[in-house]
Amino acid sequence: MGLVSRDRDFTAVGRALATPARSVFLNLLLDGTRRPAGELARAAGVRASTASEHLSVLVDAGLVTCEAHGRHRYYALAGPHVATALEALGTLAAPAPVVGYRLSRHAQHLARARFCYDHLAGHLGIALADAWVGRGWLAGREVLVLTDSGADGLQATGFDVDDAVAARRPTTRACLDWTERRPHLAGALGAAVGRRFLEAGWVVRHRSGRGLDLTEAGTAMLREAWGVTLAEPASDDAPATPARVASRA
Amino acid sequence: MGLVSRDRDFTAVGRALATPARSVFLNLLLDGTRRPAGELARAAGVRASTASEHLSVLVDAGLVTCEAHGRHRYYALAGPHVATALEALGTLAAPAPVVGYRLSRHAQHLARARFCYDHLAGHLGIALADAWVGRGWLAGREVLVLTDSGADGLQATGFDVDDAVAARRPTTRACLDWTERRPHLAGALGAAVGRRFLEAGWVVRHRSGRGLDLTEAGTAMLREAWGVTLAEPASDDAPATPARVASRA
DNA sequence: GGGACGTTTCGGCAGACGCCGAACCGTGCC
DNA sequence: GGCACGGTTCGGCGTCTGCCGAAACGTCCC
Predict the structure, then answer these.
(1) Distance in angstroms, CA of B43 to C1' of D18?
(2) Which of residues 207-226 of B touch A (CB under 8 A)?
(3) Do B157 and B241 sit in the same domain of this protein?
(4) In chain B, which residue's Cα lies nearest the Cα of A30?
(5) Are B75 and B21 within one domain?
(6) Are B132 and B149 in contact (CB under 8 A)?
(7) Which of A183, A221, A224, A185 is closest to A203 using CA atoms?
(8) Last residue of a domain, one of A81, A97, A113
(9) Contact with chain B for residue A52, Cβ under 8 A
(10) Do both B74 and B132 map to the same domain?
(11) Residue nearest to nucleotide D25 (CA to C1')
């Protein structure tokens, strides 16, 4: 101890991020999914061989892990710390160039609800954070610290708060969305919430895409439990207030 | 709004970090100082011409700003957001390779007290955070949220809390040291504290180096105000408890 | 076993990039 | 004005690396 240099060598991480294909890969994996090499290759517009080389660079840099499954190899982010760091870097990075694509519809969907590695994000994530700050369950405005009443309330609603508190990761963490400017809940508790939403069937992963669909059950649950209503996806733009919260302390 | 891609292009930032020389530059600037091109060149072990090219890359990437002063050009980090992002990336990056140097002495000095862009870090920063958490001035263990009593207490001690709260930046932010594993106070309030420590002469920048020296006045002030004592720099290693806090609630 | 398929490895090519020395520019000083 | 000095620009050199197609490997399925 004390013998290690205090400075960090950004070279390796930098190299890993420094090419368009790898940047695309990371963006795709940033929602916490595992994806086979071929799918990543197609998404980035490069040959399988090229993608393979890129992926091994990411693995060597420790950003991504590889898990063999049958004749597929699934790649995923190496852990929450990678997601956290990339998310912080996103502050500096420019929005990715918009490829032709039917982006608009896609983007709207993502804006509404998605996973940010292991926790809920998009309008849904923000609405939850707002609601819980409103009831005094989370404190610190931009920082989202769990209060005692919050621990009780969330536990009562069926979230595994004890586990989250005991975890090695920070219990709560505020994750600032790049496009919206409001924080949503990350950290061990954020992950627990996300897990529960999936297990309970309140949200389901959109088939063949990133992004989540809020189910009937989920919609009802949000309204009844916390008076949260998300703007309908069918409606046009709803930029100013993406979600409305009834109970505001 | 809504039209921008949700993904980020990490390519540019990645490229900017991807070379040893630029990594050294950023590490040097990470303490918030501005330094002339020549000094940076010497530190990185490259010719002035090479350094100049590197620096223009960093400027183009928006990580660094350049300010002409006489026949010198001073380079500095482009803002707190850059420091924050790099600090987050440090989680992923390996410790920088140790160059020959008389590193040990140097590193010890840095470990004791230094600036982390605009706020106090090192054992000093950690000791302050510990002390203030102990008195209930900061809440949230790993997160460091300012409490009401904390606002009163710090204001009474002469820190400009009102300004910090009014600032556009988050009032408090926990900055996790890479080598130590404990957080210290960053954000607008952290910057206000750092500023005051310099102005009051409690710390002075170490000549020709990074790192801070705690003055007699600073030592006395720490002890009297919060019962904080930093281990003497003359002593050998003091790894386990870098600082001791008297009053623990 | 044979064939389809997902993936990796290999060789090769072209472009990008880091480095340097030399030349150039602007400022400060005598 | 003349010179020293900090800094940038330019041309050139060698290396690295991103890309591809072809070939090899392993798995699944008939």
Answers:
(1) 31
(2) none
(3) yes
(4) B7
(5) yes
(6) no
(7) A221
(8) A97
(9) no
(10) no
(11) A71
Tally of domains within chain A: 2
> What's the confidence (pLDDT) of residue B221?
96
Alpha helices, DSSP H only, in A181-227? Answer: 187-199, 216-226
Which bases of strand D have any atom within 7 Å of the beta carbon of a protein residue? 5-11, 17-23, 26-28
Task: Tell me what pLDDT residue B83 has.
Answer: 95
Q: Which residues of A touch B103 (CB under 8 A)?
A: 5
Residue A140 to residue B142, Cβ atoms within 8 A: no
The pLDDT of residue B232 is: 65
Residue B148 contacts A where some CB pair is shorter than 8 Å: no
A171 within 8 A of A186, measured Cβ to Cβ:
no
Same domain, A55 and A146: no
Residue B199 domain-assigned (yes or no): yes
Q: How far is CA B12 from CA A26, B43, B241, in A?
A: 14, 24, 41
- The identity of residue B31, as a single letter, is D
Structure tokens at B46: 């490259």
Would the CB atoms of A92 and B62 count as touching at under 8 Å?
Answer: yes
Residues B113 and B69 in one domain: no
Q: What is the CATH number of the domain that holds B59?
A: 1.10.10.10
Cβ-nearest to A5 among B3, B95, B140: B95
User: Which of B6, B22, B91, B165 best probes binding to A when mutated, by most A CB atoms within 10 angstroms?
Assistant: B6
Averaged pLDDT, groups of 10, chain A, 249 residues long: 72 96 96 95 96 97 95 96 93 73 68 94 95 93 89 95 92 87 94 96 85 94 94 50 42
Whether residue A39 is contained in a domain is answered as yes
Tell whether B89 is covered by a domain. Answer: no
> Is the Cβ atom of A20 within 7 Å of strand D at any atom?
yes
Same domain as B34, residue B119: no
DSSP code per residue over B3-61 = -S-SSEE-HHHHHHHSSHHHHHHHHHHTTS--EEHHHHHHHHT--HHHHHHHHHHHHHT
Q: Are residues A119 and A202 in the same domain?
A: yes
Q: Does residue B4 fall inside a structural domain?
A: no
Distance A25 CA to C8 C1' (A): 18
B37 touches strand D (CB under 7 A): yes
CB B13 within 8 A of CB B58: no
For residue B62, the enclosing domain spans 11-79
